[in-house]
Design goal:
Chain B: Belongs to the YciI family. The complex is a heterodimer of chains A (about 425) and B (about 140). With about 425 residues, chain A is mostly helical. Chain A has 20 helices and no strands. Chain A is elongated, with a radius of gyration of 25 Å. Chain B is of the alpha+beta class and about 140 residues long. In chain B, about 35% of the residues lie in helices and about 30% in strands. In chain B, strands 2-5-1-6 form a four-stranded antiparallel sheet. Chain B has a two-stranded antiparallel sheet with strand order 3-4. The radius of gyration of chain B is 18 Å and the shape is flat. Chain B starts with a strand and ends with a helix. The chains are: A mainly alpha (about 425), B alpha+beta (about 140). The interface between A and B is medium-sized, with 34 and 30 residues.
């Protein structure tokens, strides 16, 4: 095979894996009851594809082909172990009855059980025994079908770090005997919340990268949105799932307008709203309406989505329904008690015209332990102080915020704000 | 990246499909659509009704001429479309290949332009207005 042909096949296989990898791993995990083993079997199947597809061409249903090869490998491994107890004999018989593995191209895939398996895989990847980093890496790799290299690029860490996280994650799942299942009913709400948190963490890394120089990382956000849409398709009746996807659609709709020609960040109030992606906003509105119709609309993601929707439908900052925004923040604050929410609420209060009340609200949260080192408090104080004409204090606040910011672009924005404030009375 | 999958069928294929129970076609397409949804890639899609219900506007003359469909000289009918969001051309190829179509049908797959395609013309008044139009049209 020529180098070009190899490159083409690798690219095609990458695309297949992104699209079908999650289902392949899920099906293999359902067979073996073990996500770690399923991941390894899936990688063997990919290696087999690289060896065979140059001769045979890409099969009509490549996901089914990979699954069938992975299952064959699992059976071979069981046979090698030679511990032919009845349980293994039954498993092999079942597997062989279900899959005519000698001709994987003709395998008819029964979708629904596989969708259940995919949901199990998502719950397992986000299992609470795993660290947050491990949950993120495993979700993107096992469910999203991304390579360790691609994940490493997204989070600006070495590939070896991602590989180590995944290896540790697999060991932790095995050590904790985490079953391959959707959680029992009494844990369902909690565990689903954990999955949503992981997806949203991935999204925010794309929306506002915590390190490096980029203002947005659209590809990272797109992966989160894709996994979110997958989850929404698997559990279509969960309002907070629909609401999270709505929130991500609204926020992603602003990506083009959030970055200036020179690569610097553009704040919401300065964005050219004509550049917001209207198709994406429409999809967000449909999702949020669905969440509300399902009896949701008052959960944390639904409230955040409702706020984002107010911005998305407003023609300008001035025409935004700020009292409605404050109302949603009130509910969100009551629900979460988060100081970050309190800060955002204070900004909305200032936008209704009551800057002094907003400043008092900011000072009330400034002492919160969680925000001590964050650039958030001083940057919000800077905005409000500037608005009320207290220029020297505003400049000092922006400089303070810049000193606390780890993202170079955001630091530059804050310093520019400080520099633009007029001197003296 | 957004891609449009455009389904084209020959009239012979349309005639042949009349022998297949319509529910079977609906089920096959339904399963495919469901796959696109559960893969998180489907943005929009629809089928088109019988070409006889449509019409054709011909711009060959100074005054456009409107005639009833189908457009006789066309051998392949545009019969439906999907809009998908994917990360690469290869991924679009993957999903296009999975489409449950048979002999006499083709998928034409085209990347949908976005803002980056018009960067050179960013100052053009109508390019600037376009996003505003999209808003009014609710797209």
């Amino acid at each position: 095979m020529t180098d070009d042909a190899t490159a083409d096949l690798t690219a095609a296989l990458d695309a297949v894996w992104r699209s079908e990898g999650g289902r392949v791993v899920a099906a293999l995990a359902a067979m073996t009851g073990d996500v770690a083993a399923a991941e390894d079997l899936a990688q063997e199947a990919v290696a087999a594809a690289l060896a065979q597809w140059p001769e045979s061409g890409i099969p009509r249903n490549p996901g089914a082909w990979l699954t069938a090869v992975g299952k064959r490998r699992a059976i071979d491994a069981w046979r090698r172990e030679a511990a032919f107890d009845d349980r293994v004999r039954t498993l092999i018989a079942d597997a062989e009855r279900a899959e005519p593995v000698d001709d994987p191209g003709t395998v008819v895939v029964d979708r629904e059980p596989i969708d259940d398996d995919l949901l199990r895989l998502l719950f397992t990847a986000c299992h609470p025994v795993l660290t947050r980093e491990a949950q993120i890496a495993l979700t993107l790799r096992a469910v999203g079908g991304l390579s360790s290299e691609a994940i490493a690029r997204m989070f600006l860490v070495p590939t070896a770090t991602v590989q180590a996280r995944i290896t540790r994650a697999k060991k932790s799942l095995t050590a904790a005997h985490v079953p391959f299942e959707t959680p029992p009913r009494d844990q369902w709400a909690d565990r689903l919340g954990g999955v949503l948190r992981v997806i949203y963490l991935i999204f925010t890394e794309g929306y506002a990268p915590t390190s490096g120089t980029a203002v947005v990382a659209p590809d990272t956000a797109a992966e989160a949105l894709r996994v979110g849409r997958i989850l929404a398709a698997l559990v279509p009746d969960e309002p907070e799932v629909q609401a999270l996807v709505a929130l991500m659609e609204f926020q992603a709709s602003r990506f083009a307008a959030r970055v200036a020609a020179d690569g610097s960040a553009v704040l919401l109030e300065d964005q050219d709203r004509r550049r917001w992606d209207r198709g994406q906003i429409t999809r967000g509105r449909d999702r949020l309406a669905r969440a509300t119709a399902l009896g949701g609309g008052r959960g944390s993601y639904a409230l955040q989505a409702a706020i984002a929707q107010e911005h998305a439908v407003a023609a300008s900052v001035a025409q935004t329904d700020w009292p409605a925004v404050v109302g949603f923040y009130d509910e969100l604050l009551a629900l979460t008690g988060s100081p970050v929410v309190a800060l955002n609420r204070a900004i909305a209060v200032a936008m209704t015209g009551d800057v002094e009340r907003a400043l008092a609200d900011v000072d009330a949260v400034a002492s919160s332990k969680n925000l001590l080192d964050s650039p958030l408090v001083p940057s919000v104080r800077g905005e409000l102080l500037q608005r009320s004409g207290r220029f020297d204090e505003a400049r000092a606040a922006f400089e303070d915020a810049a000193a606390r910011s780890a993202n170079e672009r955001r630091r530059a924005v804050l310093l520019a704000k400080a520099a633009q404030i007029p001197w003296g009375p | 990246m957004k891609y449009m999958l455009i389904m084209r069928v020959t009239e012979a294929a349309v005639a042949a499909a009349e022998d297949v129970p319509f529910e079977e076609i609906i089920n096959k397409m339904g399963r495919y659509n469901e796959e696109l949804v559960t893969a998180g890639v489907l943005l929009a899609g629809d089928g088109l009704s019988d070409a006889a219900e449509g019409f054709v506007v011909d711009f060959s003359a100074d005054d456009p001429i409107v005639t009833d469909g189908p457009y006789g000289e066309i051998h392949e009918l545009f019969n439906g479309f999907w809009m998908i969001q994917v990360a690469s051309k290869e991924e679009a190829v993957h999903w296009a290949r999975r489409c449950p179509l048979g002999p006499g049908t083709k998928l034409e797959v085209r990347r949908v332009t976005d803002e980056s395609d018009f960067e050179e013309f960013a100052d053009n008044e109508y390019i600037q207005k376009q996003a505003g139009w999209r808003e009014e049209l609710g797209q």
